[in-house]
Amino acid sequence: MKNILVLCRGNSCRSQIAHGYLNYFAFKKAKVYSAGIETHGVNPRAIAAMQEDGIDIKTHTSNLIAEYKHIDFDYIISVCDHVKSHCSIRFSSSAVRIHQHFRDPSAVKGNNRKIHEAFEVTRLGIKHFCRAFVKQYL
């Protein structure tokens, strides 16, 4: 079983969505963790967006990256440019590092429809990325 860590700035949206999809697509092939360099709590809109696709992340928690520094990861996936350039925690040098930036849907301003669309677009992009990741690496 592989250990996968998904990182983003606040561990509230993008990393949580990726965590949910990786759990789903890698069913019993990987132990998935997600964390941030800050914790912002799991965004309720991310939970709702995932529920629309049948994935339940409402029991996820927002965690700091330092909580997992003792784990030997096989893959470390960063899903935002901020964490790629600001993460000071060092993990095993043998971990395969993959970076794929996704737009932060929680940063979108506007009416509920516009915000919902932003979450949907980000969710779909992450879903495709996670499916391809599992196919290629697991």
The average pLDDT score comes to 93
Oligomer: single chain
Helix/strand-derived category reads: alpha/beta
The profile of the biggest β sheet is: 4 strands, parallel
Distance between the termini: 9 Å
Q: Would you list the SSEs in sequence order as H and E?
A: EHEHEHEH
Radius of gyration: 14 Å
Report the total helices. Answer: 4
Describe, in plain words, how this protein is organized in 3D.
The chain is of the alpha/beta class. 38% of the residues lie in helices and 16% in strands. The chain has 4 helices and 4 strands; from the N terminus they run E-H-E-H-E-H-E-H. The protein has helices at 14-25, 44-52, 81-86, 112-137, and strands at residues 2-8, 30-36, 75-78, 96-99. A 4-stranded parallel β-sheet has the order 2-1-3-4. The N and C termini lie close together (9 Å). The relative contact order is 0.23.
Properties at a glance:
38% helix, globular, 4-stranded parallel β-sheet, 138 residues
Furnish the topology, listing elements before pairings.
Blueprint: E1 2-8, H1 14-25, E2 30-36, H2 44-52, E3 75-78, H3 81-86, E4 96-99, H4 112-137
Parallel strand pairs: 1-2, 1-3, 3-4
Please give a quick description of this structure:
The protein contains four helices and four strands. The chain has 138 residues and is an alpha/beta fold.
